[in-house]
Design a protein that fits this description.
The chain is an alpha+beta fold and 268 residues long. The chain has nine helices and ten strands. Strands 5-4-3-6-7 form a five-stranded mixed sheet. β9 and β10 form a beta hairpin.
Length: 268
C-alpha cells in the first residue's frame, strides 16, 4: 500500500501543469478559454468559415478545381486551364509593395510565357474593385499592360484549397482575423497535374526568370525524356536518366559524355 501511495505521489509531481483560468466573471470568458486552448496555428482561423485543416497537395496531385470571380469574369478553373500549361501564383494583398513589383515583372514577361503555351493567373486576398485599382498602379509603376486574370479571394477559399497560408506568421492577418496568403507558385501541366510548387514568405519577392527556367525544363523533360542539371538553361547539356542505358542513349541522342556510370550528359 505504501509503495502504491509513493508511485501515485511521484506521478502527480511530474505531471505537466495545466492552464488555469479564472472563474468566468463575464459572458466572454468561456469563449476566450475555448480560443486559448486551440493550437496556436489555428487560433486566428476562428472567424473564417473555411476549415482550419488545409489539403495536402503534392507534386503529381491534380490541381483542385474551383469557381471564382476574376478580373476577366467568373471562371471554372479546370475549364479555364483547358489543355494548357499554367502558372497560378498568390499574393498577400492588393496595394502591397512587393506584390506590385512581382505582378509588373510577370506582366512584362507575358510574351515569353505565351510563346511556351503557358497561361498565367494571379490571386490576391481582396475583392474585384480593389484589384482593378491596383492593376492601374502596377501598369503605371512597371510601364506595362497587365493582361492576365487576377482571382478575387477575399474569403481565402482558394488560398486554403491550395494550402497558401503560412501557419507561423500570425501577424499576417487582416482586420477580420483571417490569414493572408503567402507567395505561392504552382506550375500545372496540360493534364492538370501539379508539377512544381514554390513557397516564399510574404516579405520575399519571387524570381520570374526562375519560373520561366523551370517551365523550359519541365517541357524539355516531357518532350525528350531527359533530366536537367543544376542551373540548366535551354541549349545547355542535359542529363541522361539512369533508366536509359548508355547504348540506348547513344541511339537516341547521338553523342553521350560519361563522367560516371550514373552521370552522363548529352545534347538535345
Amino acid at each position: 500500500m505504501a509503495t502504491l501511495f509513493v508511485r501515485s505521489a511521484v506521478r502527480s509531481a511530474v505531471q505537466t501543469p495545466r492552464l488555469a483560468f479564472p472563474k468566468a466573471t463575464s459572458p466572454f470568458m468561456p469563449v476566450f478559454k475555448s480560443w486559448a486552448q486551440r493550437p496556436i496555428s489555428k487560433r486566428f482561423l476562428a472567424t473564417s468559415p473555411i476549415p482550419s485543416e488545409q489539403p495536402r497537395l503534392r507534386l503529381g496531385s491534380e490541381a483542385p478545381n474551383f469557381q471564382a470571380k476574376t478580373t476577366h469574369g467568373d471562371i471554372d478553373f479546370h475549364k479555364w486551364l483547358g489543355g494548357s500549361w499554367a502558372i497560378l501564383f498568390s499574393h498577400p494583398a492588393d496595394f502591397t509593395p512587393v506584390c506590385t513589383t512581382e505582378l509588373g515583372a510577370f506582366a512584362r514577361l507575358a510574351p515569353e510565357f505565351e510563346r511556351r503555351g503557358v497561361k498565367m493567373i494571379g490571386l490576391s486576398a481582396n475583392d474585384l474593385s480593389s484589384h482593378e485599382r491596383w492593376i492601374a498602379d502596377i501598369n503605371e509603376v512597371s510601364s506595362t499592360n497587365l493582361q492576365f486574370p487576377i482571382i478575387a479571394d477575399a474569403d481565402r477559399r482558394v488560398a486554403f484549397l491550395y494550402d497558401m497560408v503560412d501557419a507561423q506568421d500570425l501577424s499576417n492577418i487582416d482586420e477580420k482575423g483571417i490569414a493572408f496568403t503567402i507567395r505561392s507558385v504552382f506550375i500545372i501541366d496540360p493534364q492538370k497535374k501539379i508539377r512544381l510548387t514554390m513557397m516564399y514568405p510574404a516579405s520575399t519577392g519571387r524570381n520570374t526568370a526562375e519560373v520561366l527556367r523551370v517551365i523550359d525544363s519541365l517541357q524539355a523533360v516531357d518532350k525528350k525524356g531527359i533530366a536537367t542539371p543544376i542551373d540548366w538553361h535551354p541549349e545547355d547539356d542535359v542529363i541522361v536518366p539512369p533508366s536509359v542505358s548508355t547504348e540506348d542513349a547513344k541511339k537516341k541522342f547521338g553523342n553521350v559524355r560519361e563522367l560516371k556510370p550514373y552521370l552522363r550528359y548529352t545534347r538535345i
